[in-house]
Design goal:
The structure holds two protein chains of two kinds. Chain A has one helix and nine strands, in the order αβββββββββ. Chain A is mainly β. In chain A, strands 1-3-4-5-6-7-8-9 form an eight-stranded antiparallel barrel. Chain A is elongated, with a radius of gyration of 31 Å. Chain A starts with a helix and ends with a strand. Chain B is an all-beta fold. Chain B contains one helix and 30 strands. In chain B, the strands form eight sheets. In chain B, strands 2-3-4-5 form a four-stranded antiparallel sheet, with no helix packed on it. Chain B has a four-stranded antiparallel sheet with strand order 6-7-8-9, with no helix packed on it. In chain B, strand 29 and strand 30 form a beta hairpin. Chain B is globular, with a radius of gyration of 21 Å. The chains are: A mainly beta, B mainly beta. The interface between A and B is medium-sized, with 32 and 24 residues.
Amino acid sequence: LTKNKKLFLTALILTLFSWTFLYGQEEEEEIEEEPQKIELYGLGDQNFSINVGAIFPLFFFDPTPAEGVSSFAETNLTVGGAGSLLYEAFLTSNFKVGLELGGMFAFSPNENSFYMVPITARAAYEFHFGRFSLPLYLGLGVNILTYEEVTDVQFIMKPGISLYWHYNSEWSFGGNLVYWVAPEIIPSNNEYDRIGNFLDFTISARYHF
Amino acid sequence: MTTCSESGIFYDLEFEEVIQEKNNLNNSAVFSTMFKIGNYYFGNAGANVFYRSDSSSSSADDWSKLKLPDGYADDIAVTSMVNIGTSIYLSVISHDGDSVESGIYRADASNPDDIKSGDWIEEVKKSESKTGVHNSHVYYLFAVANELYVNYVTYEYSNEVDLTGDIKTSTLFTGSAPIEIADDLSSLTEITLTSVTDSDGNDIPAKVENIVGSGTDPNDNYWIIMNGETEGNLYFSADDPAGFSNALSGTPGSVRFVDIYAIDDALEDDRILLSDTAGKLHIYDQNAGTFVSLEQDGAWFNGFYSIDGLDAGSISNQIIVGTMGYVGESTYDGEGYYQLDVSDSDYNNWDWVSGNFSDDNNYTSSDLADSSINGFYYDSSQDRLFAYTQNSGVWVNEEEDSKRIWARE
């Protein structure tokens, strides 16, 4: 090889190296800039909610109506107040379980107070959209009913939906819509069996920790 | 699931009816007695006797105050009131003024609107100065069929401000109406009862608690209850309104008696209901000479009435049984009432009726269900039942829209 050819080859190789180096540098920078998916919650995250609002008595359902009698009847109760304390823990980024202590009151035609205190275990799946989250859930547990001097302990089922806006990483605020399916089974006489149907709407403050 | 409700809370709410204020009687009025003369109901409460017509129209059935005897220093209290035929007999007392004054009065109450204070016939009147240690003379009246009973009790007071007093003497008299009562009760027949025993085993005088008879015939049977400090006595007289002697043997011991009721002839003769301070209801058969007892959760049993024919005849052979709070309690909360089925010829099979005739409307939600009952009155001609209470006034039960509804008088 002549001296000129050697110089040309050396320059070409250096140029290729430098391009490869520069190209490689550009590829690494692109990988670093690619957006990463960061989960909002994960195992170990918890939240505590306080809920206050109104409850609307819908109807009583008679599972064994007399012939010719409708299964649906008015509750004779006024619109009442409802509230609850809720603790939840995330198992995954969207699925969480919790425990809720609730309460409601309403009044009968003779202005006597009627109370229910449900204690339920809850499972929820929570969708996240930007600063909003939308949990769907189902609560199952026991329900303590009190009217006049009578107290019953029964089962209860509470499906519901909520919508929260995240104010910051610790607090979110929103509302809940929960349907109460509250059966009252009288073992001694099924004629008296009723399934109470109620709908509550509450506003909520939720603390994340 | 556990439940303490017989019919269910939701079920009760579904059928709850509004408690109406039917009449003008104050809801704190405490009737001691109630009966009907002609077309008028009468009830005495403290210093007043109220009456109203049996009309069902609201404009005509307001309660009015009966004019009471005058001639007393101040307001009088009605200690007891009974009726025989169309006559009302009142025993009254006044502690106001300088003396304790008491008496027995009678008036024909066929037209109560026309009764004036001066129309009352003074049968007995006593007055005693309240200076120092002094006595009062109290008359407790009972009526069984055509028989008037007067329990004449003298109380001794230690000074002018002592209002409780101790029983010093107690005597029982009887006479058949129509009757004129001499001031010293000598026109009546005195009934000799053995005294009750105090906790030290001494004989002491005691007030008569109640007298009942098994029918409207004077030749029926009669029972009396009296109470000592810890134990009650039950007396029986066969076919003679004055023939009481020794207390019946075999009566429940170590208890005082609350109330007694003789089963009407139309149901069963010679049987009584006897309630005690242990919360038991004893059924006694005079022929068998034995007691059986029933219980319910709650308070003592007080106030009995046959409700045969109630609800347009749908109820038969049942007795409504009231309850009252324990006297030692600070409140008078009772447990309302129960119904006793006495249809079985064997009284060992008598038992409580499950549910009552107004469970499906407003009884459970009413204050009546938590009240202490003083008594009942059932007017079969109007199919109207009254319950008069110690703590929630007077209630009336009538049919409305095919339901038996309780309302306040």
